[in-house]
Design a protein that fits this description.
It is built from 9 helices and no strands. By secondary structure, the protein is mostly helical.
Length: 234
């Protein structure tokens, strides 16, 4: 976890809750939500595009649906666990950074540690006085104030990761359940997948600007990644 995030949170009571959410903070940021949905859709498309529609029967479709369900369920669980592992790693990094600031030989060394953790786009806007203020604040925190235990927000975010990956399969799989014609179901499924990619990118673009461009870009990225996955036997 970079110090720019931690410096705003370390002043809170970490012994009570290391990442206490406010009413306006969401469990997952827009980039994470878009990434998880994209991942889920790619997983589903690797199954649907491997279906030979000219030869597929109801048994083949059923087998494909079971494979999609099992694969997305497994990866949803894996992704949620990996998210929690990432959170734990970030907390440990924050704790090590705080310890390094405490053990710095002089204020200049402490400011250098702070500067190393800040984004390159933010650092030029800060003066030595700003860095010293952050160093003093972090240096005044007691050792062990960064609680490595998982908080309620962490579990909510991990559950959100699980849901985004797992539930993204159902809109794409629905045509194969509702339509008997396998060829038409596959085409409809692909349309739904492309629409989901665009909507995901559009929603992400509303946070960062140019939503229409982000929507079309998400479609291109999704199609390209699916092509890579299928080409390598994914």
């Amino acid at each position: 976890m970079t110090l720019d995030n931690d410096s705003s949170e370390m002043g809170k009571d970490y012994k009570t809750n290391a990442a206490r959410p406010t009413a306006f903070r969401r469990a997952l940021d827009p980039v994470s939500r878009a990434s998880e949905i994209l991942f889920g859709i790619i997983m589903v498309l690797t199954f649907t595009l491997s279906l030979a529609v000219t030869e597929a029967g109801h048994a083949d479709v059923r087998a494909m649906l079971i494979g999609m369900l099992g694969c997305n369920l497994a990866w949803a669980i894996i992704d949620a666990v990996m998210y929690l592992m990432g959170v734990r790693g970030e907390r440990r990094l924050a704790a090590f950074t705080l310890q390094a600031i405490h053990e710095a030989e002089d204020p200049a060394a402490g400011r250098a540690i702070v500067a190393d953790q800040l984004p390159s786009a933010v650092l030029p806007a800060l003066t030595t006085v700003d860095l010293e203020r952050i160093r003093r604040h972090l240096g005044g925190l007691p050792a062990g104030s960064v609680d490595g235990r998982f908080a309620r927000r962490d579990y909510l975010a991990a559950f959100g990761v699980f849901l985004l990956v797992f539930l993204s399969l159902f809109p794409v799989a629905a045509p194969f359940i509702l339509v008997d014609d396998v060829t038409f179901a596959l085409r409809l499924s692909n349309v739904v997948a492309v629409a989901m990619l665009f909507i995901t990118g559009f929603a992400f673009g509303r946070h960062v600007g140019k939503p229409w461009r982000a929507g079309f870009l998400m479609v291109l990225i999704g199609v390209a990644l699916v092509a890579v996955a299928v080409a390598f036997g994914g």
